[in-house]
Amino acid sequence: MGEGILSRSDVAVRESAAGFTRRGGWLHADSVALADIARLAGTPTYVYSASAVRAQYARLDAALAGVPHRIHYSVKANGNLALLSLLRQLGAGVDIVSGGELYRARAAGFRGSDVVFSGVGKTVAELDDAVQAEVKLVNVESEAELRLLDDIARLHRRVAPVALRVNPEVEVETAHHYTRTGARGDKFGIPYDEARGVARLAGSLPNVALAGLDMHIGSQLTRIEPYADGLARLLELRDAIVADGGGARLRYLDIGGGLGVTYDAESEADLDAFARIVVPAAKKSGLELVMEPGRFLVGNAGVLLTRVLYRKRSGGKDYVITDAGMTELLRPSHYNAFHRIEPVGPSGVAGVVDVVGPVCESGDFFARDRSLGDVVPGELLAIGSAGAYGSVMSSQYNARPRVPEIIVDGERVAVARERETVEDLVRHEKASPQWRTL
Fold this sequence. Notes:
It is a single chain. The protein is of the alpha/beta class. The protein has helices at 34-41, 50-63, 81-90, 99-107, 124-133, 143-155, 192-204, 225-243, 271-285, 295-298, 331-335, 422-425, and strands at residues 20-23, 26-29, 32-33, 45-49, 69-74, 93-96, 115-117, 137-140, 160-167, 190-191, 208-214, 252-254, 288-291, 302-314, 317-322, 341-343, 351-356, 365-372, 380-383, 405-409, 412-417. The chain is built from 12 helices and 21 strands. Strands 4, 14, 15, 16, 17, 18, 19, 20 and 21 form a 9-stranded mixed beta sheet that branches. Strands 5-6-7-8-9-11-12-13 form an 8-stranded parallel barrel, surrounded by 6 helices.
């Protein structure tokens, strides 16, 4: 990536140039035509707007300004190093869920103290890395994990700061049941009625320090009221811990992420209403607020750029076949998720089509029975709201090399990830492996 592409001192980008807009009938990322990016990088390719990320971060940061807080970006949404570097420059920390994400965060310049380590199934090696990196918090999800972390920290003669990830057991509405994580019986978090006992255990173990309480109730939330219910339960737990004589080292109130973005005609998250719930609760707690947004910061800051390969009609349906598929964007197939799709240039009268990819699966589709401009082979399409859970969930299925990621900042463009080659597909394989006896 070009030197200094994200380190400019004049970080304010003209509002009219931010994000994805049309000019003269052609879709642009900031001030750069997507058609020009396609000529530079080919298709399929991901395109991200740095200015759109900045704008979302600023909105959320301002909403939480009434209380000490830090935004820890959820790396699982999009782990591209250029985006991580941008968010670090804005003042964010990171929330990670694997040792690989810890490595990514460190490669992007984050220190251990910038890292909250979440995840329901951390390995011994991952916990060991977390202790050695001196992360800000390990969000433990079970008594067994807490005991294991204490053992690992003792080997390094350190005291590991932990937060209890509590399942607040509140019901939420999300677009898909896979994205609900805070209901009774979910695999995530410590069951609420066991959390007080785990807190007592944390107070008795010599090599962990109970520094925070954490929850994450779901992703792409359509209502914000469940935050109030979850926070009420966390604060009740805090009072119980204090009544038990613990909590002397508590510093952080971690409310997870989950704020939704617009994929179609949904209403945007009401940040004023969100702040009216969260800020008073954080003030009451006396703890520093930690929030872990992912999709909210980057979801609408990216598009997947693809080219039409063919038109065909079969069984009374019209198909638009593109060079991108479920290998590049899995969400429509996996979650039945809606993504806006629009021609990059001017198009004719809209018709109803299925937009599908080239992958050898019936589930390889982006849209069914969708109204779309009269595009022909060779024309470009932009699949919107693809900045989160797009590239990070991509694969090499059907031996398809992973696609590049381009970042745009005003009038400037940089390659943030190069297109893989067919050689990359077999780089770690051996046609004639060396046999051995164990």
